[in-house]
Design a protein that fits this description.
Elements lengths: L22 E4 L2 E4 L7 H14 L16 E6 L2 E5 L2 E5 L14 H13 L9 E7 L5 E4 L11 E7 L2 E5 L9 E5 L4 E4 L8 E3 L14 E7 L3
Antiparallel strand pairs: 1-2, 2-11, 3-6, 4-5, 6-13, 7-12, 8-11, 8-13, 9-10, 9-12
Bound molecules: N-(carboxycarbonyl)-S-(naphthalen-2-ylmethyl)-L-cysteine and fe (iii) ion.
Length: about 220
């Protein structure tokens, strides 16, 4: 007879038990399955407040194409893209106002996750918030607009599950496919910090908290 502490949870949307051991993905990259699950309703409340001030928008790449991911930001700086390039900007270009402050619950979650993964003292000053609907994808890219690449990036997945593509240091390296579900947190640091990565087109689904959406928070030390 075996006992499963998580027998009572409906994992059908998620597939993984919260609080399980950190799962190494690659050098410097660690998955914390379900780490954000209990805070998710509060995070979603805060995201609603942020989007009321700094609305979701589809940014334009320097190549002139609209991104399929809808984005907003909070914190001292926000990631923006337009015809002139990518940058971190202290203000929302839609209204020239500072981005909404990073909620304490966001900062707390990101610093606790980073510490679990060996990055004690991580102090994010920017949080990019990505919203996906079925069909939305994010093509392979590197995150290299941050000043200090020694700081990790912490990502929090909410809502519908996604297939995350995790490649190598060269664009041509064939990416691994990793399922990221509601509440999963990933810390990307060390040699993984400059890995190419992306998100496969989101599959249809219906999440109890988010309906037909996935939201991803990425915490960065940008400045
Ligand atoms: C690996 N977001 O916003 S999060 C991004 O799910 C971004 O919305 C994806 O890539 C999303 O830039 C993926 C996971 C992630 C974020 C940053 C990374 C993985 C990373 C930076 C370096 C290596
Ligand atoms: Fe990225």
């Amino acid at each position: 007879m075996t006992f499963d502490l998580f027998d009572n949870l409906d994992n059908s949307q998620d597939g993984y038990a919260p609080g399980s051991a950190p799962e190494p993905l690659a050098e410097g990259a660690v998955v914390l399955r379900g780490f954000a699950r209990t805070q998710a309703p509060q995070l979603l409340d805060e995201i609603g407040d942020i989007a009321a001030k700094a609305p979701w928008r589809h940014m334009i790449t320097p190549g002139g194409l609209g991104m399929s991911v809808a984005m907003t930001n909070c914190g001292q700086a926000g990631w923006v893209s337009d015809r002139t390039g990518y940058r971190y900007d202290p203000c929302d270009p839609l209204d020239g106002e500072p981005w909404p402050a990073m909620p304490a619950a966001f900062f707390d979650l990101a610093t606790r996750a980073a510490a679990e993964a060996g990055f004690a003292g991580f102090a994010p000053d920017a949080c990019l918030i990505n919203q996906y609907e079925p069909g939305t994808r994010l093509s392979l890219h590197q995150d290299r607009d941050e000043r200090d690449l020694r700081a990790p990036i912490v990502s929090v997945s909410l809502g519908l599950p996604a297939v995350f593509l995790f490649g190598g240091l060269r664009r041509a390296d064939r990416p691994a496919r990793i399922r990221l579900a509601h509440g999963d947190v990933v810390v990307w640091g060390g040699p993984s910090r400059l890995a190419f990565h992306g998100v496969a087109p989101l599959a249809d689904g219906d999440h109890p908290l988010l309906g037909q959406k996935r939201i991803n928070l990425t915490f960065r030390k940008a400045l």
